[in-house]
Amino acid sequence: MAEETKEINAGLNEAETVTAETEGGEGEDLKINASIQFNDIIFDCPHCGKSIAIDGAGAGMAITCPDCQNVIQVPYPDTMAAETEADASQMQNLHEQLSAAQHRVAELASALDGANLKIEHLEKTQSELKTHLEQMSTEWGVIQNALDRVMALMQEIRLR
Ligand SMILES: [Zn+2]
Known about the structure:
By secondary structure, the chain is α+β, with helices and mostly antiparallel strands. Helices cover about 55% and strands about 15% of the residues.
């Protein structure tokens, strides 16, 4: 609960040190180093325009402007905006990939249609061949019967 109600007194020198004060009055240094770090959020006070630097951990917190004493909210850092931008770019990429994939699917569907037509044609041909084969088989049966009869006759002749 102290975390949520914590007010940070952004003070002292411009873009340098910001001290956080908990409600209990115990001071806590969010950032001691005077040099601006990667994590720092640098923004201008919306009331007086003073440049304020605060540790990234202070994002979204309410602070008191050291110049005009107005309570202002620390904005979220640029890295988040950059991340959002990267996300958007990635999303754009995914959209492009999706679009390409959809195009490919359409191509494949069209190719599949063609393949289906070929299969249909092949099935028809196969069925025709099967019919032919059945006819030949029937004819072969007739020939076989005739041969059997000839053989039987020859056997009979030999036995006489
Ligand atoms: Zn101010």
